[in-house]
Design goal:
Distance between the termini: 32 Å
Strand content: 15-25%
Number of helices: 8
Radius of gyration: 19 Å
Largest sheet: 4 strands, mixed
Number of domains: 2
Order of helices and strands: HHEHHEEHEEHEHHE
C-alpha cells in the first residue's frame, strides 16, 4: 500500500526503519543491510528524505557506537521536528496495522489449522517476551516459514515465532509454563482464539 503511495519500496523501508527507531542514528551501509536494498538506492532515497527535512545529518562524534561505521561515516536520524513527522507517523502506524491484519489472514488461510494465534514482541513493542508470534494448532511449518520470511522482507523486521500443538499448549499452560506466562502478561494481540483461552 505505502509503496504505491510513495512510489518507492526503498523509501518506505527507510521510513519504517527511521520511525521505528526515532532517536537512533544510522549510516548508509547499515540502512542498506537493514532494508535489504542496494546501497546506491539507499543513498538516493536518503538524499530525497534529507531534502524533505524528514531526516537530519548527525556528526559521527556524537554517535556512541561508531564501531558500527567509521568516524568518517555519514549518519542520519529522523527529524522529529519536521512538519510532516506526526502525519507520517500516523500513516505508517495505520499501514502497519493493515499489513499485520493481511499477514494474520494469510497465515489463517494457508498455514494449516490454527486454533490460537497471539502477536506480541515486535508487534506490540513488548520487550520482555521470548517470541513475537505464538501459533497453536496443526501447522504446516514450511508454509508458515515462507509466509513469515515474506512478511520480514516486506516490513524490514525479523519475527521470532513459536509453533505448538494444542496438546503441548494445554500441558504447558496447566503447569504454569514461564514462557507462556510472559506472553500472557506482556502486551499482546489475540488474532485467533478457537481454544477460548482469552
Amino acid at each position: 500500500m505505502l509503496e504505491h503511495l510513495f512510489g518507492s519500496k526503498t523509501r518506505v523501508k527507510l521510513l519504517q526503519i527511521f520511525f521505528r527507531h526515532p532517536s537512533k542514528p544510522f549510516f548508509g551501509r547499515e540502512l542498506a543491510r537493514l532494508s535489504g536494498t542496494q546501497l546506491n538506492a539507499v543513498r538516493r532515497e536518503i538524499l530525497n528524505l534529507f531534502t524533505l527535512h524528514l531526516i537530519q545529518a548527525v556528526d559521527a562524534k556524537n554517535v556512541p557506537d561508531t564501531d558500527l561505521g567509521t568516524e568518517r561515516s555519514k549518519y542520519y536520524q529522523l527529524n522529529i521536528l519536521s512538519p510532516l513527522y506526526q502525519e507520517l507517523k500516523a500513516l505508517l502506524v495505520q499501514a502497519a496495522v493493515i499489513e499485520e491484519e493481511e499477514f494474520v489472514a494469510t497465515v489463517k488461510a494457508r498455514a494449516g489449522k490454527v486454533v490460537l494465534m497471539v502477536l506480541t514482541g515486535v508487534f506490540t513493542e513488548a520487550d520482555e517476551v521470548d517470541t513475537d508470534l505464538l501459533i497453536v494448532g496443526q501447522v504446516k511449518p514450511l508454509v508458515l516459514t515462507k509466509l513469515i520470511k515474506k512478511f520480514e522482507k516486506d516490513n524490514g523486521r525479523q519475527i521470532r515465532y513459536t509453533i505448538m500443538s494444542a496438546k503441548e499448549f494445554q500441558e504447558r499452560r496447566e503447569i504454569g509454563d514461564k514462557f507462556l506466562y510472559r506472553i500472557f502478561e506482556a502486551k499482546h494481540l489475540v488474532a485467533v482464539d478457537e481454544m477460548r483461552v482469552f
